[in-house]
Amino acid sequence: MVILGIDPGMAIMGYGVIEYDGVKARALDYGVVSTPSDMETPQRLLRIFNSVEELIEKYSPDAMAYEELFFNRNVKTALIIGHARGAAVLAGARQAIDLYEYTPLQVKQAVVGYGRADKHQVQSMVKLLLNLDEIPRPDDAADALAVAICHMHSAQFGRKLDSRIRKWNE
User: Fold this and answer.
1) Catalytic residue among 38, 67, 68, 118, which?
2) I need a surface site. Which of 34, 127, 137, 155 has the fewest CB within 10 A?
3) Residue 50 pLDDT > 70, yes or no?
4) What pTM was computed for the model?
5) What class, spelled out in words, does domain 2-169 have in CATH?
6) How far is CA 24 from the centre of its chain?
């Protein structure tokens, strides 16, 4: 299973691609898509959309997971990030990839085992779980890998649950 994780952002959108064989996970690629602040919003969104489409074409993921928008007090910032997330989600939908959304709490719980873990704890576990030599940089890339790991755990549980239900119904 190949999973594309997305950490939404307008200026910096993190991405992480992992492969999971049912036993271990490995990072195939991670990084960021950057858009300069002096670029017009429609062009920034187009760059994000095109970049996600390129990642999808390159890795043919089975699923795309992205972090739910964390709404803080700054409504303008939340709207801008929402636009960027929408561009990324649209790219996945256009390619008919299964899309999954996770809250920051769910991501931390899945990666660290504690929903209130701090950023460094999450990054350290990403490094450990993917057997990387160092913590992925920048932070947005590490966050995107964490979202992909979250889906890996959720998808694994879902398969196990489905097989138990089938056994009970036989």
Assistant:
1) 67
2) 137
3) yes
4) 0.90
5) alpha beta
6) 18
